[in-house]
Every structure is written in structure tokens, then in C-alpha cells.
């Protein structure tokens, strides 16, 4: 079979190569289409019809419209062949309709499942957004790592092309990213670093430091009081006050790691 096809294909290539010897390999698909749509002398049908049950439509078919009716078969063998062709065409059309209906039903189900896990956000022209960064591939190897950022930005929405599509421009290098669906973007939130926020943070830190210092002083006072009581309790009784042991006024500072937060 392959050798027979090559015997047909080689003359076509040689004829085409006479005019374009350096680009004939780019036109192999056109030559193959000519072979698939040509009537075979042995089968009486085109290879495309034998494979798919219908003849492919070319540019000329689109210009002249539908083909005319074929001549009615005259012999019983021709009638049997024509009946087999009609049955094959009807079966294929029935199968195509079933597949088309099933495909539409599955599309609706897939859309419902997708919408259940999607939050619809409203965007306007001029908004700042993050844009999802797809992983680049070289062959079958992905160039993106787990630690690589999944979004880049900030980007600005330049023009709304449809309810869910915007033209996006990256602000860092002023590059037009192109049409982007809202599924691949998320809002960009700017941090407001004003003096009021800084003052509030400073006040909170000062209050926390004062509270910690007060807690430390209270703990030190309690430990000092307990220490003095233990010293007086363990002091031996004596009548001579001059021989009594002098109690130090020094206070012990408790390490920070022992103080409960």
C-alpha cells in the first residue's frame, strides 16, 4: 500500500519541484489533499470518502455550492453499492448529531462546575491588577519552579474588549500584554503608608513597652519582698543589735525569660 502511494506521490512532487525546487517540502499537505480527494480507479471512491464517509469540501466547492446529483445506477451491483453508501452516510450523520448534542450537554455541565468555584469580580478600565504568569515550557520540561511568582504586576486595564476580557499593559516596562481574561487576573491593592498609620503604630508600640515595663517592676517588687521576709525569718535571735547581720538593700533583677507574657 505504501509503495503504491509513493508511486503516485513522486510524480506529483517532481512536477511541483520543477517550478519551486527549494520549497516543495512545504507543500506536501496540498499534494496529499489532492490524492485524498481524487477518485480511485479500483474502489470508485475517493480515499477521504472511504475513511470518513464523506468527501471534504475544498475552496471550489464553497464557490459553486452543493454538487449535483449523481447519475442513477443501472446495474444491481451499482444499486447495492449506492445503497451501502447511503446507509453509511446516514449512520455517520446520526452519530455526528448524537456527538454534537452530547458535547453541548457536557459543556453546560462543565461550565456549572467551573462557576461553582469561581468568584465573579467586576473590573473597570484603569484598574490595577495582578496577571497570572503561565509557566514556560521547553519541550516537555517546565521552566517555572515552585518558588517562582505565579503573578506579575502591577498591570493596568487599558481597554475592555468584552465583559470578561481586557487589554492589559504592564507598568514596569510599559509592555502591552494583550487580551487577558478576568480568570487570569486579581485586584492589585496598594499599601497606604501615611503619617497617620505610622503614628498609630508608634503609639501602640509605646503602650506595649510601658505595659511590659510595669509588669517587670511589679514582679521585681514581689520577689524583693519575699526575699526580705525569708531573711528576717531565718535570722538567729540575739540581744546585741550591733552584731546583727546587715540586710542588703540591693534588689535582684529577674531575667526576662522567666517573666510570663
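Sequence proposed for the structure above (261 residues):
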Amino acid at each position: 500500500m505504501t509503495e503504491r502511494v509513493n508511486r503516485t506521490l513522486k510524480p506529483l512532487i517532481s512536477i511541483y519541484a520543477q517550478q519551486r525546487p527549494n520549497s516543495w517540502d512545504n507543500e506536501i499537505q496540498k499534494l496529499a489533499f489532492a490524492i485524498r480527494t481524487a477518485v480511485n480507479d479500483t474502489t470508485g471512491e475517493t480515499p477521504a470518502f472511504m475513511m470518513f464517509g464523506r468527501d471534504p469540501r475544498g475552496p471550489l466547492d464553497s464557490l459553486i455550492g452543493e454538487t449535483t446529483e449523481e447519475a442513477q445506477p443501472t446495474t444491481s451491483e451499482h444499486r447495492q453499492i449506492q445503497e451501502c453508501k447511503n446507509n453509511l452516510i446516514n449512520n455517520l450523520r446520526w452519530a455526528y448529531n448524537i456527538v454534537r448534542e452530547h458535547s453541548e450537554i457536557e459543556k453546560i455541565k462543565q461550565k456549572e462546575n467551573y462557576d461553582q468555584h469561581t468568584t465573579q469580580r467586576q473590573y473597570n478600565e484603569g484598574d490595577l491588577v495582578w496577571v497570572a504568569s503561565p509557566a514556560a515550557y521547553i519541550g516537555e520540561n517546565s521552566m517555572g519552579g515552585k518558588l517562582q511568582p505565579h503573578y506579575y504586576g502591577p498591570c493596568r486595564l487599558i481597554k475592555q474588549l468584552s465583559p470578561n476580557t481586557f487589554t492589559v499593559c504592564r507598568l514596569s516596562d510599559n509592555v502591552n500584554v494583550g487580551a487577558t481574561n478576568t480568570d487570569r487576573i486579581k485586584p492589585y491593592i496598594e499599601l497606604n503608608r501615611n503619617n497617620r498609620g505610622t503614628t498609630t503604630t508608634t503609639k501602640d508600640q509605646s503602650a506595649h513597652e510601658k505595659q511590659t515595663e510595669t509588669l517587670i517592676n511589679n514582679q521585681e517588687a514581689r520577689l524583693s519582698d519575699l526575699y526580705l521576709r525569708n531573711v528576717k525569718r531565718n535570722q538567729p535571735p540575739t540581744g546585741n543589735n550591733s552584731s546583727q547581720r546587715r540586710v542588703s538593700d540591693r534588689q535582684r533583677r529577674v531575667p526576662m525569660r522567666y517573666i510570663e507574657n
